[in-house]
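Researcher: For the annotation table, I need structure tokens for Dolichyl-phosphate-mannose-protein mannosyltransferase. Please keep the output clean. Sequence:
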Amino acid sequence: MKKLLPLFRQLDSIIAAILGFYFVQALTRHGGIGVSPDSIMYTSVARNLTQGNGFLQFDAKPLTMFPVAFPYFLHIIMLISGKDIIPIAPIVTGFLFAATILLAGFILEKAVPKYRIIKIIALLLIITNPALLEVFSMLWSETLFIFLITLFSAFQVLYLKNNTFTLLFISAIIAGIAAITRYAGITVIASGCFITFFAIPQNWKVKWIHTLLFGCISSSFLIINLLSNFLQSGYLTGKRLPADTSLLDNLQLYGSVITGWIGNDAPPLWLALLMGLLLIVASVIFLLLNVFSKNKSPNTIVSITAASFLSIYVLFILVSSTLSNYDDINNRLLSPVVIAFFTLLSIIAAKVLENKSAQFHLNIALFFILSLLALTGNLTSDKTSLQNNQDAGIGGYAEDYWKASEILHFLKTSTFADTSKIPIYSNDNAAIYYFTGKHAKTLPELTHERELDVFVQSPAIYVIWLNSGANPDLIEDKELKTIKNCKPVFTFADGIIYKCTPIQPPILENQDTLK
């Protein structure tokens, strides 16, 4: 009976993990796993690895924009299962979500051991969180990344308690793999170095030795990946454009996403900005208070682990999104801190409830009201997502729209792209590869002048224009016709295939207005 007691204590986590797995299957039941251009990159590299072609994308270019771990993980799954990754992806991401929830349950057990009701509410908020469900219903590297972060956090909790080299080594390996799953995984390395140096109760010599060992072991994975990228392409992480959002805008977006996690999907701009600022300041202060606390209880240890990663990751995202152009801060970008966020809220809630003041009953009532509002907001958002997915499939290439595409059906069934001796370009070459298995070059970005000049001066080419593949960073339909002499060859309800030739030099001079 004593051997079964730990299992019974984790029964709530096991039930939550089963529910999490079921939610992913429900969201992907209609059209399968969600697929985006990123997903197609990962899938094509995994297929090339399985075929012995190395880390090559579908366009035959080396993988540099994304690190190597997630495609390699998909490759391993394909080898074990003997199947392509797309049909079995919902099972894979479902198991990753379930495993993440089990690890989160372990961490919450250490964080609030006296308040099981807080742990259960936190688990409910985690398994219904729109950001996590969005990520785990898509074929994105965040699925593996979030699992690795949670696994790293669990081992960091054990390391802070025991301070053994074995736990340090395992944590460093996990952090290293996380860093080559997503480049933002450098925050996991930074968090581990911070915890190792400032949080372990050892003398300075041991702190330095452990920190250097952790840093060297964990960063070696990323250094090798970046060096390989540079040798193959001349870029460390692919071509990156300058940012087009300010720090204040990013703070507002951060606050807006977080308030959505606690029940308010559309806060006023001032409230979102204030929430973003308060959360950053509060997480840093909370981290420092626990780091310099003499009481290294399990509660304090979990606080340090969660607050360090939350603070470092959020600051990294805010700074990098202000300097480099990528997606606006959204649920996907912030999904890696969901578990750390609710872990810290659980710890704070437990501290409030421990204070047996005259307002004790009021605190309990307020805690349950806020929890109910957050859970209601989650369920409302999840219900909308489930309904949309059942009606038309998950957003991206899994939507029913693409299955009925006339232009893609033509490309798949005709010999046009197979026999053409003329180069083929497209505004959505990922969709063409995914649905037809055929290849096209991507149209150049307006900010890449050298590539744009080559494109303008090239002889006859075909351009496959997909109406739903518009990308504001690439040449648009109207702009294309001002820099090339384009005539429709095939016209469909959802796209056009042009044959484009160079235009006369006097007209070509006008291209400077596009740059």
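Researcher: And a one-line annotation?
Model: The chain has two domains: 5-392, 404-514.
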